[in-house]
Amino acid sequence: MIRIPLKGALRVAAVLAGLTALEAQEAKPEVVTPAAPAAPAAPAAPVVPKGAVPRLPLVPKAPARAEWTVYYNRSFDGSWETGNSWEEGADTAAAERQVKSIAYSKDADRQTYRLATRWSDGSDEEEWIVMGHHVAERAGGRGLYVVGAEQAMSKELGKADFPELAWVEMSHFRGIKAYKGRPVFAFTVPFDQKRLSTDEARLVAFARQQMPDAKPSEVLKPKLQQVTLYLDAVTQLPALYNDGSVIRRYEFGAAPSTRLTPPKRTMDFLRARADFLKKRMTAPAGPGG
Q1: Which residues are within 8 A (CB) of 285 and not within 5 positions of it... i.e. 6 or more apart?
Q2: Do 107 and 129 form a contact (C-beta atoms < 8 A)?
Q3: pTM here?
Q4: How far apart are CA 11 and CA 281, in angstroms?
Q5: pLDDT given at position 149
Q6: 132: phi > 0 → left, psi -120 to 50 → alpha, else beta; which?
Q7: DSSP letters along 244-261, please?
Q8: Considering only CA atoms, which of 261, 24, 242, 59 is closest in space to residue 166?
Q9: Sheet containing 173-179: which strands, arranged edge to edge?
Q10: Alpha-carbon Rg of the chain, whole angstroms?
Q11: What are the structural domain ranges in the chain?
Q12: More confident residue, 155 or 289
């Protein structure tokens, strides 16, 4: 007999109830609001009062229903700071497979995210996070699996939509700048003074077993010793983030007009997994039961 803590049993029961509720929502016809007519021209860049400072929290969550794409670049040619000469796909040659962009879709009411990753070799991958469960495809299309706890994306997205920016503090604020024709709040911090991400902290801790006094920059070897972040001065959503090794450019689209619905295959997989765990938690009947 396998003994499962009561907390685990309650968690599985909650997952099953949540999947049932989500499937019930999907079965209902959605009332689609007609799209508003397109604006005749793009609005002028907003005017931010001189001396304006960011609000708290510094990096808010994206709207409840949102879509955005993060583009990755590893070329440090001096033009990254203005964003005017960023060329899609321009990057230093690399032998290893690297992420080029990740397109995010979010539906907070359904506790659902879709992540569409484009790789440097031209391939694409789609992953779903449903009620905190991160579902991805095995290499070679060998079936679905739940991404393990060592991959903290599902846990981090439950707290913030931009977990890579958890380090930023008001003490890093450096004023207002112009980026791609819009005002942004600029933040900078020396690389060795930035709070490390979970993955960075793990690498540094491992290295310090041999070199106790090693600085993060000596282990992670960034191309730049200063970390830079630009937040849109109106929405405070991220516009550009240079962590010293990778430059991320953020683009936000219009709010989607339809609900975010995971594929039936993903939902069937999660339900089958939850049912399996529920059976494991059920104690076998005793003699004569």
Answers
A1: none
A2: no
A3: 0.82
A4: 11
A5: 55
A6: left
A7: SS-EEEEEE-PPPSS---
A8: 59
A9: 144-146, 133-137, 124-130, 112-119, 99-107, 65-73, 247-252, 238-242, 226-232, 182-190, 173-179
A10: 22
A11: 65-84+97-252
A12: 155
Contact partners, residue 86, CB within 8 Å, separation at least 6: 71, 73, 79, 80, 249
List, in order, residues 6 or more apart from 133 with CB less than 8 Å away: 15, 146, 154, 270
Is residue 112 within 8 Å of residue 128, measured between CB atoms?
yes
As given in the structure block, the two tokens for residue 219 are: 């282990």
Hey, is 85 helix, strand or coil? coil
Average pLDDT over residues 61-69: 97
Instruction: In whole angstroms, give the CA distance from residue 94 to residue 89.
Output: 12
pLDDT, position 70 = 97
Distance CA 183, CA 275 (A): 51
CATH 2.60.120 corresponds to the domain 65-84+97-252: no
The SS3 of residue 118 is strand
Residue type, 43: P
Average pLDDT over residues 124-139: 92
pLDDT at 29: 60
Residue with tokens 């999660």: 270
Q: Each residue of 134-155: pLDDT tens digit?
A: 999 988 888 999 987 545 576 7
| Tens of pLDDT, residues 196-211 | 988 899 999 999 999 9
